[in-house]
Amino acid sequence: MEPLTLIAAGAALGAGVLSGVLRDFLQRLLGRSKDIVISFPPASRIEDRAEELADLLKRSTTLLNELSSEMEARTATVRALQAEAEYAQNLASIHRDAQEALEKMLDARLATRLEESGKKSFKQGMWLNIASGAFFFVAGVLATLALGR
Questions:
Q1: Domain assignment present for 114
Q2: 77 lies in a domain?
C-alpha cells in the first residue's frame, strides 16, 4: 500500500476509536445513553477519499514533472534560437563589411577605368580633329587650285 493510503487508514481508525471514547465519556458525563448520537463518516468513505487524494497528488506530481520537462525543452530551444540569431547577426555583419570593401574596390577600379577612358577618348578626339582639319585643309587647297586655273 501507498504511504498516504496507510496514513489515511490510520486517521480513519483513529477517528473511529476517538469517536467511541468520546461517546462513552459524554454518556457517562451526562448520564444519558440514548440521547447522544455522534456520527462520523464510515471508515471506507474516508479511505476512499484518502486514496483519491493520493491519486490526485500522484497526478499533480506527474503533471509538474511533465511541465518542468517541457519548460526545460523550451528553454533549450530558446537558447538555441538565440545562438542562431547571434550567429546570423555576426554573419550579416561580416557580409556588410565584405560588401563595403567590395564596393570600395569596384569604385576605385571604375574611377581608374573612367580616367583611362577619358584620356583615351581625349586622344582619339584630338587625332580625329587633326585628321578632319588636315582633310579640309587639303580639300580647300585642291579646290582653290582647281578653280584658280
A1: yes
A2: yes
